[in-house]
Amino acid sequence: MATRIGVAGVTGRMGALLVEEVRSAGAALAGGISRPGSAKPLPAGVPPYPDIAALAETSDVVVEFTNAAATQSHAAAMAAAGKPWVLGTSGLSAADEAAVTEAAKRIPVVYASNFSPGVNLVLALAERMGAALPADAYDAEILEMHHRQKVDAPSGTAIGMGRAVAKGRGVTLADVMVSGRDGHSGARPTGAIGFAALRGGQVVGEHTLIFAAATEHIVLSHRAFDRRAYATGAVNAALWVGGKPPGLYSMMAVLGMA
């Protein structure tokens, strides 16, 4: 029997692509719900549901790209439903992530800042580079650019890059993160991981990690031209997570890299 995949956020930027990728993968489209506050009609042929609890009831797994404000209530609903959850919503707060972690005690959750295979390879390299390049000699800076409609900054993928570098260095990103420099901000702290966010046009996603030393610069970049890479990865994650025990999984695990 084909896996029944529900899509939360089916009217958003990723929604139509997810619908196409679910069908292309040979899975069954269980239905969808709109992003909170969206008045857009659902794509043709997608059964509508009033909320994520109802969607989860009829699905084997739910893939979600919605708004961070819905994360805590959706985490509780998915845990109560006992169904696997693939979460790609960005801009989550510490409290939101805590709710996701709590849900993962009862259900399998794949939570990723980015579902592109290429980005996840970059994250793996970022961690190794963070471990290999001493923080007192190589300053880590992350530059990202996205479309003008994006509401959160730095992007989830940029944060993921920073976390990878921090993990390689044996520190916590929150303790070394520097974002939004303005005015007389003082000298750069040793060991800091800096972030800069650009917004404009309809850029799908560009991320660059720079390790800057006095004698050399090492640059690691990824540029996305089509959101379909994210949709394909998310559907692959949905097919992979079925039958897994409760726990918090990364896209690295889906790709067999963790």
Highlighted features:
258 residues; alpha/beta; Rossmann fold; Dihydrodipicolinate Reductase, domain 2; 9 helices; 35% helix
Summarize this structure briefly:
With 258 residues, the protein is α/β, with parallel strands linked by helices. The protein has helices spanning 15-24, 52-58, 71-81, 94-103, 117-132, 156-169, 173-176, 228-241, 251-254, and strands spanning 4-8, 28-33, 61-64, 85-87, 108-111, 139-146, 177-179, 193-199, 205-212, 217-224, 247-249.
Describe this entry's structure for a reader.
By secondary structure, this protein is α/β, with parallel strands linked by helices. The protein folds into two domains: about 140 residues, 3-Layer(aba) Sandwich (Rossmann fold), CATH 3.40.50.720; about 110 residues, Dihydrodipicolinate Reductase, domain 2 (2-Layer Sandwich), CATH 3.30.360.10. About 35% of the residues lie in helices and about 25% in strands. The strands form two sheets. A six-stranded parallel beta sheet has the order 2-1-3-4-5-11, sandwiched between helices. Strands 7-8-6-9-10 form a five-stranded mixed beta sheet. Strand 4, helix 4 and strand 5 form a beta-alpha-beta unit. The model has no long low-confidence stretch (mean pLDDT about 95).
CATH topology of the largest domain: Rossmann fold
What form results from the Cα inertia axes? elongated
Q: In what order do the strands lie side by side in the largest sheet?
A: 2-1-3-4-5-11
Number of strands: 11
* CA(first)-CA(last) distance: 29 Å
Give the overall average pLDDT.
Answer: 95
Order of helices and strands: EHEHEHEHEHEHHEEEEHEH
Based on CA atoms alone, the radius of gyration comes out at 19 Å
Please identify, by name, the CATH architecture of the largest domain: 3-Layer(aba) Sandwich
Characterize the main sheet. 6 strands, parallel
